[in-house]
Amino acid sequence: MQFKQYELLRVTVMCLAVTFLAVAITQGEEDGSFARWRKHTINDRSPFEAVGVADFNADGLLDVFSGDSWYAAPGWQRHKVRDVPAGTNPHYHEDFAD
Question: Where exactly are the structural domains of the chain?
């Protein structure tokens, strides 16, 4: 008997979780539209793929750090910090072309 109660509780919790997830996914913005991402190209010649985000210059805006430079928001002015040596695999970026 205790096993059936546990199963019923488990199924109930799963159904509630799926319901809440479905509601969250289908809800848009107040105007009926869905949230949208805006792409910002900061440096289209940079070989670096990872970024860090923080307020590096204490102006209240989030700046971006990637590779050898940080970029000041909102105009993304580049501030070079250091030289980053090339990796040992010269074909690293070609691996993603498949």
Answer: 49-85
Rounded to 10 degrees, what is the CA torsion of 11, 12, 13, 17? 100
Strands 63-66 and 52-54, how do they pair?
antiparallel
- Name the DSSP class of 7: H
User: What's the CA gap between 69 and 52, in Å, rounded?
Assistant: 11
Amino acid, res. 87:
G
Confidence of residue 80 (pLDDT cuts 50, 70, 90): very high
Q: Give me the mean pLDDT over the 28-55 stretch.
A: 78
| pTM of this structure | 0.55
User: Coil, strand or helix: which one is 46?
Assistant: coil
Residue 59 neighbours by CB under 8 Å, 6+ apart = 72, 73
Q: Give the CA diameter of the chain.
A: 68
Beta bridge partners of 79: 70
